[in-house]
């Protein structure tokens, strides 16, 4: 474990806590893409299959349970909770995310570390996570003004993977035989997708103005 | 040495 990965995990956890706070405090999920939440739930379920077979550490197990539990709870809330689901921007959240799932699965069959079921699913979860934020970014551009908590949620979600890239660079130089090229390339794509969001988020912070994404 | 195959990251 290194400082980049730990702050990365804490940033990821913070993004989930901010999202839970927004939904719980405002009883609203306006501006949040249900499709991105469903993709993230699928990412965690596909990646953490080894939850009960490979014990890495208490930290690792606890975080996996938190990520799976929170992502499923958010999807359940947005689909079932009568007050929350009323505020869901159904007509704006129309990105066809099933194509993302199919595409990532095909890519995982072709490009993986080893053509074994767990490895293919792991690669699938890595590719899917890289593109899972697209419905959310599309929704933000369509909905124009972004409330603070939603903006902070998306910012933290993007920042965590940037910290993981620093972690991979650090591990590459400090650990012999360390290679996570699949995760690293996908992580670079994932972080690049946030580039313009980061730019407008920085502008809104610098000018102390409301976060506005050009539609 | 053995490549660290374990997926120790989240």
TrEMBL record, chain A:
It is a multi-pass membrane protein. GO terms for molecular function: ER retention sequence binding. One of its GO terms (cellular component) is endoplasmic reticulum membrane. One of its GO terms (biological process) is protein retention in ER lumen. The chain crosses the membrane at residues 55-77, 98-115, 153-173, 179-202. Keywords: Endoplasmic reticulum, ER-Golgi transport, Membrane, Protein transport, Receptor, Transmembrane, Transmembrane helix, Transport. It comes from the Eukaryota. It comes from Pyrus ussuriensis x Pyrus communis. It holds the Pfam family ER_lumen_recept. Its main location: endoplasmic reticulum. InterPro entries: ER_ret_rcpt (IPR000133). It is found in: Endoplasmic reticulum membrane. Belongs to the ERD2 family. This is ER lumen protein-retaining receptor A-like.
